[in-house]
């Protein structure tokens, strides 16, 4: 029995010359079928097509990522990086770290002016903001867990780029909003700019990107990191102040790391270790909150939010001081998630008042800005699970498209501490642990996560949103395990976020006013945000029933095998 909740249909044939049949499916209840949840219906369908061809969850998640690079260019990418957390049906757990790295010519003070002041424009926009892309290498590193050859996995994305697809209203608005930035940072014509504004239903064709994908299909990873595409990328660097070289691209390596694992109330959590701060923050926040028996409260009640926000405050203070690329720093993960440390951290908590952030770290004024990454959750009919979060960092990354190759480049260098104590574009403060060094991976907030119950996948979850990622995943876990909510309510309920600095707690615009008022009486500062995250969740019960939900905040969609 399959339940579908569907919105927004443009009527034509799916396999027409152009992809104009775009069906957004927000919720599916199914059994003995594979499911894919992503930020775009055509990308989810690409993953589902691969499942139908005999691929497993890892084939599907790679196909979905390639497709997102075409249909969701603000965050889907081959010019960025990401993290994959996988749990195979036999219980094997693995991660793939294809986070971008700093070029060989990068240096600690590369974004400081002659007076030592940080120039965040250089770290956020244009060619100097670009880290060495890791996505394509990550897709090939995932291939050993796949069933199908890359030539088949990549084909749906080639078709989408070559034939074109109808953009949605949200996508048209995004392209129009960034038009001036695209023109400023690109010296040649790009597919994303036209003479008149974009509107829903317009066809976006990306011939150059199709040719780039064909080179990858034909030559493998070398089709991106060497030869024509690499030469075009380096030529793009030379059009501005970029520093990535052919040697940087050829030397890029994926890191396969031991998953961060811990237990939470009878469930086994599998998440991403450093250089993602997400898994570590999730472990800290869940364990600190458990000291106050969250299950006794209601979702988004004042006491529940206070407990959770105070756990977020303390975890993010630790993020700034301790977290970075584990290949360059002393990895203190075990210490930071130990009961003794977390109990000492929690001693200052009181239901009577907000804990001043100055008590858990040094106050530094900082801005609040938004972000865009993208998440994919996949489960196949055999029980293999994949949770992937990938990004260009900001919307459309550096705003630079590689001329002749057709893809956006990231602005991930901004995720380093460009000057210790100076916040990045998402307001996150960093210290020496995350300072810039050649070949170093920048700290991330991405939190792809899989929960197991009795050794089998119970939840596959993740979200975009910069520093709001770990707090949104945290709320998702608590919603389901402590508050006993279903996937739909958890995903679409209003979220909140606190990250130590700034002092204020951010609440989505539809968050309960009574809770905010009670929090203010306790000394909390509050801010209203239009949106926090876009969670993609799959829940599997003990009898194998699958409940997959795509976030209602965007064009996110579920596809079934």
UniProtKB/TrEMBL annotation:
<dbReference type="GO" id="GO:0103068">
    <property type="term" value="F:leukotriene C4 gamma-glutamyl transferase activity"/>
</dbReference>
<comment type="similarity">
    <text>Belongs to the gamma-glutamyltransferase family.</text>
</comment>
<comment type="subunit">
    <text>This enzyme consists of two polypeptide chains, which are synthesized in precursor form from a single polypeptide.</text>
</comment>
<keyword id="KW-0808">Transferase</keyword>
<dbReference type="Pfam" id="PF01019">
    <property type="entry name" value="G_glu_transpept"/>
</dbReference>
<dbReference type="InterPro" id="IPR043138">
    <property type="entry name" value="GGT_lsub"/>
</dbReference>
<keyword id="KW-0317">Glutathione biosynthesis</keyword>
<protein>
    <recommendedName>
        <fullName>Glutathione hydrolase proenzyme</fullName>
        <ecNumber>2.3.2.2</ecNumber>
        <ecNumber>3.4.19.13</ecNumber>
    </recommendedName>
</protein>
<comment type="pathway">
    <text>Sulfur metabolism; glutathione metabolism.</text>
</comment>
<dbReference type="InterPro" id="IPR029055">
    <property type="entry name" value="Ntn_hydrolases_N"/>
</dbReference>
<dbReference type="GO" id="GO:0036374">
    <property type="term" value="F:glutathione hydrolase activity"/>
</dbReference>
<dbReference type="InterPro" id="IPR000101">
    <property type="entry name" value="GGT_peptidase"/>
</dbReference>
<keyword id="KW-0012">Acyltransferase</keyword>
<dbReference type="InterPro" id="IPR043137">
    <property type="entry name" value="GGT_ssub_C"/>
</dbReference>
<dbReference type="InterPro" id="IPR051792">
    <property type="entry name" value="GGT_bact"/>
</dbReference>
<keyword id="KW-0378">Hydrolase</keyword>
<keyword id="KW-0865">Zymogen</keyword>
